[in-house]
Design goal:
heterotrimer, A alpha+beta (346), B alpha+beta (102), C alpha/beta (375), A: 346 residues, alpha+beta, 60s Ribosomal Protein L30, Chain: A, Phosphoribosyl-aminoimidazole Synthetase, Chain A, domain 2, 2 domains, five-stranded mixed sheet, 8 helices, 26% strand, globular, C: 375 residues, alpha/beta, Rossmann fold, four-stranded parallel sheet, 13 strands, 34% helix
């Protein structure tokens, strides 16, 4: 039998920052280089977490790296992000995180008290999320690399019963649910860097979304078609990936999208769109129309889900695209960005 | 060109009168008032901010005036049609009833 | 948000759309140019074209300072900043603009110290905080932005801060409008005037367009209601056979402009005899350079500028799109060789460039999506 030689579609000669931003460039790297070499002739679309069957038990597994500057910011720090991020990746695959292993890459010269604070933060986040930190690894690199510290977490979890999510199960008429206001995390980080001279009473929204996911699955069961945590690249990237994977159109109602005043103010000042900004404590769910209202009420009744909204619906057209509509009948396509959102003055 | 946003002056620096803190929906930023030195704004005024400088004061009266005009869009025409029905329309009036703005 | 939300009220926007549809004479085809890239962006962002009847066409003008900057000037700026102990400070808009050997962001990834700033004042602050380095601010923008650069230079001089210079690429709007009107292929009925430029230069500079060219100009704000009201005002003038300059953006724009801002500009800048505009060619008296009194703070007078000239690929039809002769989708490279990710021409480089705005917000909308909200 002839060996299939994987075809590498990735043509760029070097890696740029955009390749890590969760947008178009990231997708090209994954689809063009990683997928053909690592995932064989994959049929399924790529997702955050992998599903593995071991002796008949369905296990979900996910990994994520955390590169954050500054390490501490209002509402959280890299340690908490690292735990919640992987717990959330598993949650939106429909799994309860059971155990996490942690890998640290530390910069020589990092003050111990900073590391200690992060380790404490991780312990606290793990306890809150009900997940066990089962082990880890540490490496130290020379001063000048790693910007203090990089953290990678890998988690495994047990799939909740009744959950069968995939982009293929999404249908026209399904509703788009969002757990709460968007943009808090990304704008907090942007402001915390200090280069733009902006200040606001804003905090990262980092938290485990598993309790909300659990209620959603309880309320809607097989009516839950797909879920995603809109981290880097924002709601726009997550929904665009879905739209491309299922070939359908996702229409959002602008007046329904929850955004805090100060996030909106910062976005208006800097010329950014909240739909492109990272979130670390929210998730999107596509739910069948029969179950959508019950699901929404279930979220709203759960602590932390009070601001959940139905923000749109799935339609046949525009194909493979995300469209935002307004009450007055205007609309615009929302695409993934190339790289990170940049402030503008024009 | 020209992303400029309205913001409210919440504090003027007592040491540098041309520096102020402006609030935009809860986001605060230092803004240079140097381009408004001919008619300096005071705390509580609204200004248009572009690249960290205040370009203009915002007139509450003109904004309200504009909102009134916009709210009346279409209604003026309807009123005029009614007036025309009575044969009372004057010939030198703009047909849509809008006063000329210069 | 005060002074923003009121001008985005959906019911009033619908009403304004209705008024436009009523005013537009079905036997005419109106071609209205919005000069400013900020207006182009707003039109697409708010989906305003969905509200216009098919005989009211909006033509995108050249008011995008990033779009009209020749690639050679970007190369020059990056060469200047490549000196040791230099910090290049620029607006976010500049970061992905490709020079011949890469964009500022790509140079940053390769080790150049490149910082995004929101304000020229922040660039000056960088200089204050980094006395061992030289901070070069890459200045771009029309008359909206030039006064802020000017005042920053005044402050630098007063403070005696010598590790700071400005690479000045400010351009002026009137020569660009003139170039549009002089273009033989152009047929325009009126202009939506650049509201924020006008807060500085006032409304008088547009009077020749009304008097000599017979085209109405309405100086417009940037919220949906501002733009729609401006179109209403233009259609009224056109219906009555008038050609005047009107100020729709009265809450912000003074008819006489901002004297203090104009003074600051006059103090620091003078007009270059000519300047190359990407897509439009050389235009005389259309750009600003720093006066010799501020030579110390002018990157071009202090350092040697290579003076690179890069010609754009012939296939890129930026000039025609910039002048409104062609629509973005009519350029042969649009969406194929030229996308926001791999821009070939200037108009795809900036998010308010007409090609980028059209590509990002509009071109995948099926025509029938116009009433998607009620479908």
């Amino acid at each position: 039998m002839a060996t299939i030689v994987p075809k590498i579609g990735f043509r760029e000669s070097q890696i740029e920052m955009a390749h890590g931003a969760g947008g178009i460039a990231s997708r090209r790297l994954v689809e063009g280089l990683f997928a053909p070499l690592l995932f064989g002739s994959y049929q399924r679309p790529l997702s955050d977490a992998a599903q593995i069957q071991i002796d008949g038990t369905r296990i979900a597994m996910s990994t994520d790296s955390f590169v954050v500057k500054p390490l501490r910011f209002p509402g959280g720090s890299i340690g908490g992000l690292a735990i919640n991020g992987t717990v959330n990746d598993l949650a939106v695959s429909g799994a309860r995180a059971e155990a996490i292993v942690v890998s640290f890459i530390l910069e020589a010269g990092l003050p111990t008290e900073i590391l200690e604070a992060e380790v404490r933060a991780m312990g606290l986040a793990a306890e809150k999320a009900g997940v066990r930190i089962a082990g880890g690894d540490t490496k130290v690199v020379e001063h000048g690399n790693a910007e203090g510290m990089y953290v990678t977490t890998t988690g495994i979890g047990r799939l909740l019963s009744g959950v069968e999510i995939s982009p293929q199960s999404v249908r026209p008429g399904d509703k788009v649910l969002l757990s709460g206001p968007i943009g808090d995390h990304g704008i907090t980080i942007l402001l915390a860097r200090g280069d733009l001279g902006l200040e606001a009473d804003l905090r990262s929204d980092t938290r485990s979304v598993f309790p909300l996911v659990q209620e959603l699955v309880r309320a809607a069961g097989a009516g839950v078609r797909w879920m995603r945590d809109p981290t880097r690249g924002g709601v726009a990237s997550s929904l665009n990936e879905l739209a491309r994977d299922c070939g359908l159109g996702i229409v959002l109602f602008e007046e329904q999208i929850p955004v805090r005043d100060s996030v909106r103010g910062a976005c208006e000042l800097l010329g950014l769109d909240p739909l492109h900004i990272a979130n670390e404590g929210q998730f999107l769910a596509i739910v069948s129309s029969e179950h959508a209202e019950t699901a929404l009420q279930a979220l709203r009744a759960t602590p932390g889900g009070e601001e959940a909204r139905m923000i749109g619906e799935v339609r046949e057209r525009p194909e493979s695209s995300v469209l935002v509509t307004t009450l007055y009948g205007g609309s615009r396509i929302v695409d993934m960005l190339v790289g990170d959102p940049l402030p503008r003055i024009c | 060109m020209c992303l400029a946003i309205p913001g409210k002056i919440i504090e003027i620096d007592s040491q540098h009168q041309q520096q102020a803190v402006v609030d935009v929906a809860g986001v605060r930023r230092k803004v240079d008032l140097g381009l408004l030195q001919d008619d300096p704004p005071v705390s509580g005024d609204w200004v248009l901010i572009h690249v960290g400088f205040a370009l203009s004061k915002i007139s509450e009266a003109d904004a309200a005036d504009q909102m009134r005009t916009l709210t009346m869009l279409g209604e003026a025409e309807a009123a005029m049609q009614e007036v025309r029905g009575y044969g009372l329309e004057s010939e030198d009036q703009d047909i849509s009833g809008q006063r000329r703005t210069t | 948000m005060k002074y923003v939300d009121e001008f985005r009220a959906p019911d009033l926007i619908s009403k304004a759309g209705e008024e436009i549809r009523k005013l537009a004479d079905s036997s005419r085809h109106y071609r209205i140019m919005e000069v400013c890239g900020g207006h182009t962006h707003a039109i697409y962002r708010f989906g305003l074209k969905d509200l216009l009847p098919s005989n009211v066409e909006l033509i995108h003008g050249p008011g995008c300072p990033v779009c009209v900057l020749p690639m050679g000037r970007i190369d020059d700026g990056l060469s200047l900043a490549a000196q040791p102990d230099f910090i290049l400070a620029a607006f976010g808009d500049m970061m992905r603009v490709p020079g011949t050997h890469g964009s500022p962001l790509e140079y940053k990834a390769r080790g150049m110290d490149v910082r995004i700033v929101y304000s020229p004042a922040d660039a000056l602050k960088l200089a204050r905080n980094n006395p061992a380095k030289h901070v070069m601010f890459f200045a771009i923008g029309f008359e909206t932005t030039a006064p802020s650069t000017a005042l920053t230079l005044v402050r630098a001089k007063t403070e005696g801060l010598h590790n700071f210079s400005v690479f000045c690429n400010h351009v002026t709007i009137i020569p660009a409008i003139r170039a549009i009107l002089d273009s033989p292929d152009m047929r325009l009925d009126g202009f939506v005037g650049p509201g924020h430029v006008s807060t500085v230069i006032g409304c008088r500079p547009y009077e020749w367009i009304a008097k000599n060219e017979g085209k109405p100009v309405v100086v417009s704000g940037f919220e949906p209601l501002d733009i729609l009201q401006s179109i209403v005002m233009l259609l009224r003038q056109l219906r009555n056979g008038e050609a005047r300059v009107e100020n729709q953006y009265k809450r912000v724009v003074p008819w006489e402009g901002n004297r203090a801002a104009l003074r600051a500009m006059a103090e620091v800048f003078e007009l270059r005899p000519y300047f190359e505009w990407r897509g439009l060619g050389f235009i005389s008296q259309s750009a600003l350079k720093i006066r010799s009194a501020y030579a110390e703070w002018d990157s071009e007078q202090r350092f040697t500028v290579p003076g690179v000239r890069v010609t754009d690929p012939k296939a890129a039809q930026c000039g025609e799109v910039l002048k409104g002769v062609l629509k973005p989708a009519q350029c042969k490279l649009f969406g194929r060789e030229c996308t926001p990710e791999q821009p070939v021409g200037a108009l795809m480089v900036s998010s308010e460039g007409s090609c980028a705005a059209y590509y990002n917000y509009e071109h995948r909308k099926p025509v029938t999506i116009a009433n998607a909200a009620t479908n």
